[in-house]
């Protein structure tokens, strides 16, 4: 009886103990960090908070490549921890005069950098360790211009390329779900080529709820869908505008689709009717830029 009682008490405690979150790709969510930051969660649309003292090696953002590192060093909001560079790369790195006082580089060999990164990483002789940027709350985004929402787009190359296009078209923010999104580090940062420093990634717990909230604030929500009843060119676009894109193959989830004001497809006159999500984002942003320019 005693053993049974002890086992029951242990099971009750296990039920009460916060379960570690599933790995979603976000660096600061690893090893149950989400649970550690739960008290700092100020609103259902804020995914996490940052505490410098609690950052360990697993929580650091690794940024490599000359463009990505140069933009990170020039960003006053980016907290730099360590910079590794070869002598040749350091001569080519140009973060701007205002940023040079932020770092003291460690001169290393290319091999030393490569040992800290995946085998296929093209680091160009430079690696930066930094704290992740603190994302704004959904409510802090101004109701103007264009924002993107990515529904379970998990490929870091695609998300990085989308961020790069977003920076080129002056997008205000890119909204992603906390789960099923890649880390804002490494491959994504390299593919973004510095865009992480200019376009905030805003993680939300529930993307459909985020669309509802933004709709209430006046955003016109357009879901990009191959099966849309109309083409994007035929939609009367207006700012503030939200463009929602889904993962390749899966597309937008049903509840996200339901909370869009219109579902539209990109007109593709050729034989192939499906394109990469990052290409779709670039085309949609170009269309939106032309059609909403006078409303910004």
Q: Would you give an account of this structure?
A:
The protein is elongated, with a radius of gyration of 21 Å. It has 296 residues and is of the alpha/beta class. It has two domains: 61-130, 60s Ribosomal Protein L30, Chain: A (2-Layer Sandwich); 138-295, 3-Layer(aba) Sandwich (Alpha/beta knot), CATH 3.40.1280. The chain has helices spanning 2-16, 33-36, 66-74, 87-92, 110-114, 156-168, 186-192, 207-216, 254-258, 277-292, and strands spanning 61-64, 80-85, 106-107, 126-130, 146-151, 174-177, 201-204, 220-224, 230-231, 241-246, 262-265. The chain contains ten helices and eleven strands. Helices cover 30% and strands 16% of the residues. The strands form two sheets. A seven-stranded parallel beta sheet has the order 7-6-5-10-8-11-9, with helices on both faces. The protein has a four-stranded mixed beta sheet with strand order 1-4-2-3.
Brief overview, please?
This protein has 296 residues and is α/β, with parallel strands linked by helices. The chain contains 10 helices and 11 strands.
- Taken from the alpha-carbon principal axes, the silhouette is elongated
Q: Say how many strands there are.
A: 11
What's the Cα radius of gyration? 21 Å
In terms of structural class, how would the helical and strand content be classed? Answer: alpha/beta
CATH class of the largest domain, please? Alpha Beta
At CATH's second level, what is the architecture of the largest domain? 3-Layer(aba) Sandwich
Q: Give the ordered list of helices and strands.
A: HHEHEHEHEEHEHEHEEEHEH
Q: Sheet with the most strands? A: 7 strands, parallel
Q: Provide the spatial order of strands within the biggest beta sheet.
A: 7-6-5-10-8-11-9
CATH topology of the largest domain: Alpha/beta knot
Kindly report the name of the CATH homologous superfamily of the largest domain: SPOUT methyltransferase, trefoil knot domain
Q: Beta fraction of the residues?
A: 15-25%
Helix content: 25-40%
So how many helices?
A: 10
Average per-residue pLDDT, rounded, comes to: 80
> Would you identify the regions where 5 or more consecutive residues have pLDDT less than 50?
1-55
How many domains in all? 2
Distance between the termini: 72 Å
């Amino acid at each position: 009886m005693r053993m049974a009682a002890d086992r029951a008490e242990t099971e009750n405690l296990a039920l009460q103990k916060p379960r570690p979150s599933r790995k979603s790709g976000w660096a600061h969510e690893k090893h149950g960090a989400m649970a550690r930051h739960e008290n700092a969660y100020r609103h259902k649309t804020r995914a996490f908070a940052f505490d410098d003292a609690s950052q360990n090696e697993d929580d650091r953002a690794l940024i490599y490549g000359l463009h990505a590192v140069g933009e990170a060093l020039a960003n006053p909001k980016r907290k730099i921890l360590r910079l590794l560079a070869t002598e040749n790369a350091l001569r080519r790195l140009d973060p701007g005069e205002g940023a040079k006082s932020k770092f003291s580089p460690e001169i290393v060999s290319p091999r030393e950098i490569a040992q800290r990164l995946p085998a296929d990483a093209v680091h160009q002789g430079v690696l930066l360790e930094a704290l992740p940027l603190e994302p704004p709350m959904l409510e802090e985004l101004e109701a103007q211009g264009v924002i993107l929402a990515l529904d379970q787009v998990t490929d870091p190359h695609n998300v990085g390329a989308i961020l790069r296009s977003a920076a080129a078209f002056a997008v205000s923010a890119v909204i992603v779900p906390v789960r099923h999104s890649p880390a804002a580090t490494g491959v994504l940062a390299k593919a973004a080529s510095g865009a992480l420093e200019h376009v905030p990634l805003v993680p939300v717990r529930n993307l459909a709820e985020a669309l509802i909230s933004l709709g209430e604030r006046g955003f016109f929500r357009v879901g990009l869908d191959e099966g849309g009843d109309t083409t994007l060119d035929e939609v009367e676009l207006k700012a503030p505008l939200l463009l929602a894109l889904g993962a390749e193959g899966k597309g937008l989830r049903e509840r996200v689709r339901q909370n869009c004001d219109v579902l539209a497809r990109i007109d593709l006159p050729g034989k192939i009717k499906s394109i990469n999500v990052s290409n779709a984002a670039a085309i949609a942003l170009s269309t939106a830029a032309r059609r909403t320019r006078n409303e910004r």
